[in-house]
Structure formats: structure tokens, C-alpha cells
From TrEMBL:
Leader sequence residues: none
Membrane topology of the entry: Multi-pass membrane protein
GO MF annotations, alphabetized: cytosine transmembrane transporter activity
Keywords annotated in UniProt: Membrane, Transmembrane, Transmembrane helix, Transport
Keyword Transmembrane helix: yes
Family assignment from sequence similarity: Belongs to the purine-cytosine permease (2.A.39) family.
Cell location: Membrane
Superkingdom: Bacteria
Transmembrane parts of this sequence: 38-67, 102-125, 137-158, 170-188, 208-230, 242-266, 286-306, 327-349, 355-377, 398-417, 423-444
InterPro entries: CodB (IPR030191), Pur-cyt_permease (IPR001248), Pur-cyt_permease_Fcy2/21/22 (IPR026030)
Species in which this protein is naturally found: Fructilactobacillus fructivorans
Protein name (Swiss-Prot/TrEMBL): Cytosine permease
Length: 452
């Protein structure tokens, strides 16, 4: 007989929730207005100016609607997303989305850390003459940068949750200032007309559907962390509206900045190269100076405050015996190790693209199942006691809802198959189609099994 204590979790009572609208807005704006999003903007610049911007807006509006829904779930239950996943996947089965969430948030932490470390490498190059990454001996500076960023993350964890709020509040202000400066610099040297009319070379052209999938993968990555923060709010409006508005503004604004800066460099240099789309490289090419590099480091910290918190919650669900603080430490250290991957394969762009494919492939089905189960099959209510009871209704068979697992597999196979079709890659992409199919299959199949 399994012990109830083994699966016990903390539901945050209303009386202990202190995140206000600005805190929630700043959290999700800062999570998306960051270096990783800038780099994504540089990547989808291959879809052209109008193709890139329209794909960013469409995918963000759709994907972040799920963030609002998961945010509402956190507000209603006071539980984290990984705990809530026990209902559709089973108390033991929730290990699967937890593992995916853990690797996802460690991956995003690594992405932002690598970009920030690149900025630090530019600072080291200016101050000490150290070689840049890509040059002979360039590994040393970026490794030192990775270690420094990881130490800063650890210090913010030691300082506690309040430090995260402070980082977010300061970071949002700095991000807005940086965006304004960036826009001024970009359009001082290159006109809007030049950027809008720039034709990406055919060999580098990205289909519209692929651009949609790229943005969708980035946006959906935040959805699984939604309840981790909205469970600290005491208002439905704060839990649903603030994340949606903040996330869309952060995502779209920084995608546009990344896209425009990449195209502006292509216009002035005559060479389109998405490998040079990371903020540090672009800021250096545009002559933005050392202050820009410092801001890039700080914005990485604002984004990773969310990544590490959500990754820690996932690890805490996987191994309940480990406290949340210890989980946060472990996630930070593992993320630092993961940050070294681009140094091994030699290409940050290739590692980043592979990571986004992994994200879209698995997260779409998981989120579809999570939302359908709560709003469609459970009428917006979960039995919180049963979420930690190994003999309750969320135990299914041996603690796993095998039908939900099969639906994840269906979604993954469908995603891979759809990506083989040129018409899908050129138009609507694979992510949202696979989510719709999985949602229908899970809803209908669950209804039929309950009647049987």
C-alpha cells in the first residue's frame, strides 16, 4: 500500500497569496522579453519581415490563451502545474510531464545563460583582451561567463522569493529602456522600408508554418509553468489577464526586436546569417557598447527566475523528499552543465533549433490533455485530496492513466508526420493541429471509457 504522505503537496491558501497585478505582469513580461526570445526573432527573420511578425502575433495569441487557462487552474487550486498534471496523467503518471517540464525549463535556463555568457565574453574581451567564442581560445571567456551567471542564479535562490520579485521589477524597467535604445539605433542606420523590403535568400528562407511552430514552441514552454505563479494570486483577473497581456507583449516585442536587428545587420552587411542572431553578437555589430551587454545579462536573470522556479517545482514533484529550495539548487547546477552543450557541438543555433523541436513535439499534447481534462471533463474542479491519495480516483491503473499516455504518443507521432508535409510547413504548422487532434481524441475517448 502506497503512503499518502509520499504524494503530499502544498496548496497555497488565499490568505498567503501576495502577488499583485504588477508582479504577475512583470513576471510574464520579463519571462518573454529576454535574450532567448530575441534570438527566436532572429531565427524567424528567415520568414521575412511580414511573415515573421504575423507568425509571432498569431502563435502568441493562441498559445498564451492556454497560459491563462492554466493560470486559472493555479488560482482555483493553489497547486503547481506539475501537481495538477496528476489528475489527467495519474499520480505516478505525472512523472512523464514532470520530466519533460524539468528538461524544458533547464533547457531555457541554459539558452538564456549561454546568451548572457556570450555578453560577458564580450565584456572580458574589452577589459582583458580574452578571445571571443568562435575564435582560438574563445572557450575560456564563455565558460567563465557561464559560471558567473550560475552563481548569480544561486544567489537569487538563497535570497528567497522576494529577490525574484525584485529582479523581475527592475528587469522589466531595464528591458523597456533597452528596447527603446535598440529601436533608435537600428532605425538610425537602416530605414523601416529597407528592413520590410529585404528579401531573404531562397537557401535560407523559412516557411510560414515553420515560423508558427517555432513561436508556438517557445510560447507553450511557459504554459506549463503558469500555475506555479498564479497559485500565489488571490484574484481571478490577476491569474488570467496579467500573464496573458504580459506574455504577449514580452514575446511579440522582443521577437520583433530580434527580427529587425537581424534583418538590419543583413541589410548593412549584405549577408543573412541566423547564426549571428543572438543579442550579444547583434548588439556588438550595432555598436551598442558595454551597457547593452550588462542589460542582456540582467534580462537573462529575469527570465531564468521563472525557468528555475518552474524547473524546481517539476523536480519537487518527481522527488517529493527533496525540498523546493534544494530542487532549485539542483536545477541551477544541471542547467549550468547543459549550457556547455553548444561548446561540444560547436553551434548554438543547431542546439537551439533541436531544443525547440523537442518542446513543440511534447508540450502541445500535454497541454491539450491538461486543459481538456480540467475544463472539459472535470467542470473546472479537482478533488485536491485525491491528488495525493494513492487509492483515489486519480490513481487509475497502478498510478498511471495509460490512455493519456497513449494520447501523448499520438500527438508526437502526428507532429512528426505533419512536419513531413510541405503544405503544412508552408501554412499552418504542425503544433496546433496536433493539439486539436489530441484534445478531441482524449475528450471523446475519456467520455466513452467513463460510460463503459
Amino acid at each position: 500500500m502506497e503512503s499518502n504522505q509520499k504524494y503530499a503537496f502544498e496548496s497555497i491558501p488565499i490568505s498567503e497569496r501576495d502577488m499583485n497585478y504588477w508582479d504577475m505582469f512583470a513576471t510574464w513580461f520579463g519571462a518573454n522579453a529576454n535574450n532567448g526570445t530575441w534570438f527566436i526573432g532572429g531565427v524567424i527573420a528567415a520568414a521575412g519581415f511580414f511573415g515573421g511578425i504575423s507568425s509571432a502575433v498569431i502563435a502568441s495569441v493562441i498559445a498564451f490563451a492556454f497560459l491563462s487557462m492554466v493560470g486559472y487552474m493555479g488560482y482555483q487550486t493553489g497547486a503547481s502545474t506539475t501537481i495538477l498534471s496528476r489528475a489527467p496523467f495519474g499520480i505516478r503518471g505525472s512523472v512523464v510531464p514532470s520530466v519533460i517540464n524539468l528538461t524544458l525549463f533547464m533547457g531555457w535556463t541554459a539558452v538564456n545563460t549561454f546568451i548572457a555568457a556570450t555578453s560577458l565574453a564580450y565584456l572580458f574581451h574589452s577589459m582583458f583582451g580574452w578571445a571571443l567564442f568562435g575564435q582560438p581560445g574563445g572557450y575560456f571567456g564563455i565558460i567563465v561567463g557561464i559560471i558567473i551567471m550560475s552563481i548569480l542564479h544561486l544567489l537569487s535562490i538563497i535570497a528567497g522569493p522576494k529577490s525574484v520579485q525584485i529582479i523581475e521589477r527592475i528587469g522589466v524597467v531595464l528591458v523597456i529602456i533597452f528596447v527603446i535604445i535598440e529601436v533608435i539605433v537600428v532605425f538610425r542606420d537602416v530605414s523601416f522600408s529597407q528592413i520590410a523590403k529585404y528579401q531573404v535568400p531562397m537557401k535560407s528562407k523559412m516557411p510560414f508554418g515553420v515560423a508558427l511552430d517555432t513561436i508556438a514552441a517557445a510560447a507553450l514552454g511557459w504554459v506549463v509553468g503558469g500555475a506555479d505563479f498564479t497559485r500565489f494570486t488571490s484574484s481571478k483577473r490577476i491569474a488570467t489577464q496579467a500573464p496573458y497581456v504580459g506574455a504577449i507583449l514580452g514575446m511579440v516585442s522582443f521577437v520583433i526586436i530580434g527580427l529587425c536587428t537581424t534583418l538590419s545587420v543583413a541589410v548593412t552587411s549584405g549577408v543573412f546569417n541566423p547564426n549571428n542572431s543572438d543579442p550579444s553578437t547583434v548588439a556588438n555589430k550595432l555598436g551598442l557598447g558595454l551597457i547593452a551587454m550588462v542589460v542582456i545579462v540582467l534580462t537573462s536573470m529575469t527570465a531564468n527566475a521563472v525557468n528555475i522556479q518552474s524547473g524546481g517545482s517539476a523536480l519537487n514533484n518527481l522527488i517529493p523528499k527533496i525540498s523546493l529550495n534544494k530542487s532549485l539548487f539542483i536545477v541551477t547546477i544541471l542547467s549550468m552543465i547543459l549550457t556547455l552543450v553548444p561548446l561540444i557541438n560547436g553551434s548554438f543555433l543547431d542546439a537551439f533549433t533541436a531544443f525547440l523541436n523537442y518542446t513543440g513535439m511534447f508540450l502541445g499534447p500535454i497541454i491539450a490533455i491538461l486543459v481538456v481534462d480540467y475544463f472539459g471533463l472535470s467542470d473546472g474542479k479537482y478533488d485536491l485530496k485525491a491528488l495525493e491519495t494513492p487509492t483515489g480516483k486519480y490513481w487509475y491503473k497502478g498510478g498511471i492513466n495509460w490512455f493519456a499516455m497513449a494520447c501523448i504518443a499520438i500527438g508526437v507521432v502526428l507532429y512528426i508526420g505533419l512536419n513531413l508535409l510541405p503544405i503544412v510547413k508552408a501554412t499552418v504548422g504542425a503544433t496546433f493541429i496536433s493539439m486539436i487532434v489530441v484534445a478531441i481524441v482524449y475528450y471523446v475517448g475519456s467520455k466513452l471509457m467513463r460510460k463503459a
